[in-house]
């Protein structure tokens, strides 16, 4: 409650200053902001934010000063290094599995009998091969 009262008093002083020197729009904005701490206190929102801040501070303190947390961070670092080493090992010396031949390498069509025929992509080549197999040109 003390925080809400202090913020409301500060907001009230700002609103008074704004009304005297900056005009009605600034004073109205100041009045709106002055009402927010009281509303936060009455709805319990101010207490909720206090509990959240306290919980985050407790977590951060436990995180920084806990040896088990630092052991976990070290284990994660070793895991990352091992992933990097395994990537380098697979690229050097070890025999990698042979890649499967592409669709073009497995089933290449004989060159077209027509001169200047357009290039055929894989899907159309399959369709053309089926049509030729069934005797349709």
Explain what this protein looks like in three dimensions.
It is a single chain. The protein is mainly α and 137 residues long. It contains 6 helices and no strands. The longest helix is centred in the middle third of the chain and has 25 residues. The chain is elongated and about 95 Å long.
* Arithmetic mean pLDDT: 83
Helix-residue proportion = over 70%
**Strand percentage:** under 5%
β-strand number: 0
Largest sheet: none
What integer value in Å does the Rg equal? Answer: 37 Å
How far from one another are the termini?
Answer: 89 Å
Structural class: mainly alpha
What series of H and E elements makes up the topology? HHHHHH
Low-confidence stretches: none
Treating each run of at least 4 consecutive H or I residues as one helix, how many helices? Answer: 6
Principal-axis shape equals: elongated
